[in-house]
Amino acid sequence: MERFWEDLRWRGLIHQATDEGRLVELLGSRQSMYVGFDPTADSLHVGSLLGLTMLRRFQAAGHRPIALVGGATGMIGDPSGKSDERNLLSMDALRANIEGMQAQMGRFLDFDDHSGAVLVNNHDWMRDVTYLDFLRDVGKNFPVNVMLAKESVRSRLERDDAGISYTEFSYMLLQAFDFVRLFDRYGCRIQCGGSDQWGNITAGIDLARRMRQTQLFGATWPLLTRSDGAKMGKTESGTVWLSARRTSAYRFFQYWYNIADEDAGHCLRRLTDLPRDEIESLDAARQADPAARASQRRLAENLTRLVHGDEGLDLALAATRIFFGEEISDLRDDALLSIFADVPSRAVPRERLASGVLTIVDALVEAGLASSKGEARRAVEQGGGYVNNRRIESIDRVLDLSDLAGESVIVLRRGKKNYGLLRFE
RNA sequence: GGGGGGUUUCCCGAGCGGUCAAAGGGGUCAGACUGUAAAUCUGAUGGCAAUGCCUUCGCAGGUUCGAAUCCUGCACCCCCCA
Prior knowledge:
Distance between the termini: 62 Å
CATH class of the largest domain: Alpha Beta
Shape: elongated
CATH topology of the largest domain: Rossmann fold
Strand order of the largest sheet: 1-6-5-2-3-4
Number of domains: 3
Structural class: alpha/beta
Number of strands: 15
Number of helices: 19
CATH architecture of the largest domain: 3-Layer(aba) Sandwich
């Protein structure tokens, strides 16, 4: 079992751990380990990936992973790492979010397997606890002076402009209580989380010592950051989600494919389950020939397959070839429409195409790729107009039925990456 | 309350009776280059049935063959003196 821990260390996944010697010893037998997830949206995102893959690694090593969805704590809001008081979510929104997240976790964890991954919602045990019971049983064990010393609370108290509500202040107690309950129910002795969770994790360990006279353990991974300072999993256009509905497999693939060279090694180690020797040879290849981007490709393929399956990866690869120049022909409409799922499309009567009156200039405007005919004309004259990825040579070009890329779709493009679809119905 | 300055095309900013759809810069968009990076270079940048026509220079009138440019009134902004 030391090998397992050694691997986690090598991957850079261990930031802090309580009583590491005994923890490693404990891992010599089958254990349960839990990671909590905030139900702040109806989909998990790249930020959740680390926790999911951590659970996965434990399952692969023969332990039982427990994914805890914070149905109760989500109603409160974790102040850790947050500079401002958070808005509370409605019950309905929470329920929808939890359902969405549960649906995605099956990709990462085997819930049927003998090592039985478990999904729990802390609302299930919190909803029946009365306020008075909670204060007597749990609150009694929390010295306020210790709570005030925790980083998550202190940083907020030191601000003149933010402060912290009693509600958020209490968050730590709920998460601590979760740990005790999971110990009671599953014998779970280990909790992992991002380094911002250290305070909450140790709070649970303290509580278990007082309430159950038992020793629990915790470990944190360092928060995944990008070398340029930007947050991992964010782009100019927003969060990178794990749900294909929110972020297409193609865009997900592209996010990883475009990771900076300096970040690629970290991501391979922390997020993929590729073996050490392969990662090290990718490191060497990246040094020798960065332009080949072998690391980024491997990373993108590995994660896209994990999150979107083989089908999703195939789709992303097909879309990548097309978005980077490959001519489009002989494709079916459904393939085109899923590849271009993120691209705006416009329906046009089929007669206009058949009767040979649809000029390329009109088509570009119709597809929303130019805001005026003048702009469309300019684009074509400068060589920036494409039909099915083939450059338009003449401003007099007229579209007809032979230009269809699928049964009823023509793909127009302006410049490098602005696509627009016309559907002829 | 008195005096002065300003309001220009996406932004900044020239223009001070015709040659102004309006210099220059930024941004944006294309093209080349490139590792789907950054930088760089080139071109474009009000609309349209387009050797022309229409709309645009705070708003409304006026002078003139002709106004972003001159005059009058109005609105908003800035500065100075009370």
